[in-house]
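Help needed: design a sequence for this.
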């Protein structure tokens, strides 16, 4: 079993947050940006692909480097 651990993702819910909070979330990331839903989807697609056939028991952090 593998897992995907998303970071701060720009979704309709987070878009409604105050700009101050969004800026704080961006500042926590070394990339200084929020992720997009496609970033999370791409991680799942990779884990479901043949390229990941030998990966098991892994948590894939998709968080822009927030958790190192």
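Sure. Designed sequence:
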């Amino acid at each position: 079993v593998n897992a995907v651990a998303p970071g701060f993702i720009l979704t309709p819910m987070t878009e409604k947050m105050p700009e101050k909070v969004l800026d704080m979330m961006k500042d926590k990331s070394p990339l200084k940006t929020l992720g997009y839903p496609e970033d999370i989807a791409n991680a799942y697609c990779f884990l479901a692909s043949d390229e990941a056939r030998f990966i098991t028991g892994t948590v894939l952090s998709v968080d822009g480097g927030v958790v190192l």
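The CA atoms of residues 14 and 22 lie 8 Å apart.
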